[in-house]
User: What shape does this take?
Amino acid sequence: MHAVIRTYSGEGAKDLFDVLEQRKRDVESLMRTVKGFVGYSLIRTGDGGISVTICQDKVGADESVQKAKDWIGQNASNIGASAPKVSEGPVILQMKA
Assistant: This one.
C-alpha cells in the first residue's frame, strides 16, 4: 500500500477546510473513484488541515493528488489557498479497529 499526506496551511487554508467540510459528500464520492482506494481522512488543524489517502499502490496515490488538485481548482479556487505540502511513501503498518 501507498499513502499520501497533503498538509494545507497558511493563507486560505482554514477557509478551504470550511469548503471541504461543507462539501464532504462530494469529496468522499470523488476519492472513492481513485483506482486502488483503501482509505481517506480529512483532519482539521489549528492553521488549516491535512488529508491522508491510502491506496493499493503509488499510481492510486498519485491519482488522488491530481483529483484533489483538480477538485480544489474547480470548487475553491476563489479562496486562494496555497498549494499543500505533499508527503508520500509506502505504508509499513496499517491498523483497523
Notes: Residues 2-90 form a domain with the Alpha-Beta Plaits fold (CATH 3.30.70.100).
